[in-house]
Write a structure and sequence with these properties.
alpha+beta; Lipocalin; ten-stranded antiparallel β-barrel; two-stranded antiparallel sheet; 4 helices; 27% helix; elongated; signal; Outer membrane protein beta-barrel domain-containing protein
Length: 388
């Protein structure tokens, strides 16, 4: 009995020893290891540690992502800084280009202004002096070099030919001087330019088929002949050397206007007005082929005479006579040697007499004193000019 108990006890001890050895072998091999849990839980986004061969922590995956993001931010900032530098450099280059262009424009303007000063047209005084010296050829050399070949300043002679329509309205408080007339006329004008700015001209206008109303009760017409003659010394100035430059022409004019009726006529007197006046004309080219022309004349003191015909018609003693003229027209230029011209003009002559008229007025039967006459001409012409 005792022997059996001893055998059973030994078997239990042997089994316990084997189990103990087997359990310890499991723990020693590492298959069963008790690890202490950290009191701080790892965030859900945190990933496993990365270790080296010795098991030392190197970097978490999250830190790698942060480093990459930081690197990307640095690269973006660097790229932005480079772009800003490039933009600033481009702006500087652009500013330099603008400044350079402005400098070049200023240089060009300076050269143009200087060249303009160098090619100024010789003055009227210099050209007048050249008429009495050997400088005339230098004057014409300037125009040959600086002025367009089609510029009218290159003409030394000009001839105008123009048919004219004229209406004459004479109003007076003396019936012998109160009449009207409508007729055709022909105007011929010639000009010679000693220099491009100094010349002389002559103009003649004579009527064709003109007449005036008579004092007779049957309202018959009286043949009449109009003759207008002007001689002038002309001075021009052009504002530039271009053929489109504006110009002004000043003239000193010797004028004589006549109206002649038959010597046996008893209704009208023969009239003549003469004297010296001035003229001013401006030429305004709107293109190389067309120019507007405006001007006028003024005769502050003229000599007016009434000549005897069939009877001695006399309005009194001539005290004062003045004349004022205005013109507006244009020129179509085909070339320097040919232009078509048109003109619409009017002249008003005022005659004032003192004392008593020579004959009683047929309309009133009384003899007027201090007779006055306003003689107005309205003219339209269309003509042609030759230049050489």
């Amino acid at each position: 009995m005792k022997t059996s108990s001893a055998i059973l006890l030994l078997s239990l001890l042997s089994t316990s020893t084997s189990f103990a050895q087997t359990g310890l072998e499991g723990f020693s091999s590492g298959r069963y290891e008790i690890r202490k849990s950290s009191s701080k839980r790892m965030p859900a986004s945190e990933t496993a540690l990365v270790t080296d061969s010795d098991g030392v922590k190197v970097r978490t995956l999250k830190e790698s992502e942060l480093a990459a993001e930081e690197k990307a931010h640095k690269e973006a900032a660097a790229a932005k800084e480079e772009a800003a530098k490039a933009a600033e450099a481009s702006k500087i280059e652009k500013d330099k280009t603008v400044i350079s262009q402005k400098v070049e424009i200023t240089k060009v303007e300076t050269v143009v202004d200087k060249s303009t000063l160098e090619v100024q047209e010789p003055s009227i005084g210099e050209q007048a002096e050249s008429l009495f010296s050997n400088k005339a050829e230098k004057i014409y050399d300037f125009y040959r070099e600086q002025v367009h070949p089609d510029d009218i300043r290159n003409n030394k002679a000009e001839l105008d030919f123009a048919p004219v329509l004229i209406y004459n309205d004479s109003q007076s408080n003396y019936s012998f001087r109160d009449y009207n007339s409508f007729f055709n006329a022909l105007k011929i004008k010639a000009a010679v330019w000693f220099t491009p700015l100094i010349g002389v001209s002559g103009q003649m206008l004579f009527s064709m088929g003109a007449d005036v109303d008579s004092m007779d009760a049957d309202k018959s017409r009286v043949p009449a002949k109009y003759e207008f003659t002007d001689l002038a010394v002309n001075f021009r100035r052009f504002f530039g050397v271009s053929r489109k430059s504006n110009s002004v022409e000043f003239s000193v004019i010797l004028s004589e206007n006549k109206m002649t009726v038959p010597s046996d006529n008893t209704s009208r007197a023969r009239l003549k007005t003469s004297g010296v006046g001035i003229g001013l004309k401006t030429r305004l080219p709107s293109s190389a082929n067309y120019s507007w022309v405006m001007g006028g004349t003024f005769f502050p003191r003229l000599q007016h005479d009434e000549s005897e015909t069939g009877v001695a018609i006399n309005s009194g003693t001539a005290e004062d006579t003045i004349r004022l003229g205005l013109d507006f027209g244009g020129e179509w230029k085909f070339d320097r040697e040919g232009q078509m011209t048109w003109n619409l003009g009017t002249t008003v002559e005022r005659n004032v007499f003192a004392d008593t008229a020579s004959l009683p007025d047929p309309s009133t039967g009384s003899t007027p004193s201090n007779v006055s006459v306003t003689n107005t001409l309205y003219m339209f012409s269309l003509g042609y000019r030759w230049g050489h």
